[in-house]
Amino acid sequence: xxxxxxxxxxxxxxxxxxxxxxxxxxxxxxxxxxxxxxxxxxxxxxxxxxxxxxxxxxxxxxxxxxxxxxxxxxxxxxxxxxxxxxxxxxxxxxxxxxxxxxxxxxxxxxxxxxxxxxxxxxxxxxxxxxxxxxxxxxxxxxxxxxxxxxxxxxxxxxxxxxxxxxxxxxxxxxxxxxxxxxxxxxxxxxxxxxxxxxxxxxxxxxxxxxxxxxxxxxxxxxxxxxxxxxxxxxxxxxxxxxxxxxxxxxxxxxxxxxxxxxxxxxxxxxxxxxxxxxxxxxxxxxxxxxxxxxxxxxxxxxxxxxxxxxxxxxxxxxxxxxxxxxxxxxxxxxxxxxxxxxxxxxxxxxxxxxxxxxxxxxxxxxxxxxxxxxxxxxxxxxxxxxxxxxxxxxxxxxxxxxxxxxxxxxxxxxxxxxxxxxxxxxxxxxxxxxxxxxxxxxxxxxxxxxxxxxxxxxxxxxxxxxx
Length: 467
What we know:
Blueprint lengths: L3 E2 L2 E5 L2 H11 L8 E8 L5 H14 L5 E5 L5 E5 L8 E4 L5 H12 L11 E7 L5 E8 L5 H19 L12 H13 L2 H16 L11 H10 L16 E8 L1 H14 L3 H17 L3 E8 L5 H4 L7 E8 L6 H17 L5 H11 L12 E5 L16 E6 L8 E7 L6 E8 L5 H20 L5 H7 L1
Parallel strand pairs: 6-7, 10-12, 12-14
Antiparallel strand pairs: 1-2, 2-5, 3-8, 3-13, 4-5, 7-8, 9-15, 10-11, 14-15
Helix pairs in contact: 2-4, 6-12, 8-13, 9-11, 9-13
């Protein structure tokens, strides 16, 4: 392999990046890896200072200057350029409606990046019709995940505010992307930790074969059994023949959100445990199985260096629990918490290897799966990150759908900046899951979480009956 490209040292892809490359290969719409978002504040902006802050943020963050190139065999690798020199665009939406402005930004989000030697992000300074000002930001998932994206946006704002306002400190340095990359590559090359992680996940897979639970009940699994003539099949196909997706968002108000957060604090569990408990109980209710698997994303950002190094560090694994209906809600939650903690300890393991080993152990030739959906919880908000120094300047964030997904259903739960209430963002294949299905799921998910957090010692079976 070539050691340098255009004079820069080159590095192989990490496992987290390979995972994205891997599923992009199956997707006819290459924009499936685009993440589009905007961040605007309710005050006038000095556009020159903002532009300089953006350049400065690029300079401070190696992963924002990532480039990819492929060798003659078609293997991709990465390198980092010294600086970003391209112009930063400015678009004034003042003469448009909010709907028109959002529709244009959604179109931007649907333009895939050219991989070879090209920047993998785009920043546009925007003036929106509601009198807010800020930036639209588009990044490719192979170079960023939600956490590093929020970290980068925060850096721009802090650099800007440090120039514009007295008493706002200059932000602390970002961490090195290359340093984390080299750690990941050293792990991949083989070490005791990797052996332990492999043993852990192999043991989980070998325990027994999981079973598929459908969002509407066991219909998909029954259809699969009929189609194959095998009454014992435990996996089903849940994606459609089209990757076209929609984003449906459900808003949980501030006050009920606080009740859920208070429950988590009281019992020392994370909100993700409560969400997983709510979701698995929903599938248990709909399918009559104690055995439920859901894909769950792990951010792998435990240390300050990992948190601030940029890039994409998410590994996603099937999370399977077998919890009988006579256990209490709280017992279920603690079981999830303990298993999650074990997953965190072994999360550097390669998810592609996980699926490869599982399909070798339980061959499912037709693209069947055991997991009806994926869950990501995004605890980071700009507010929790020290942006309250701006006094009472209001700000808004918005995510724009890229219009494609290779999964039937992907739920991202995040906090709204305005009131810290929760947004449930369901990205779903339009032909696989309908908005009505999601309304039903969301309605019961909330009922389960509230009933359970108000009566933690109630058996799960009773909660299922009561809702």
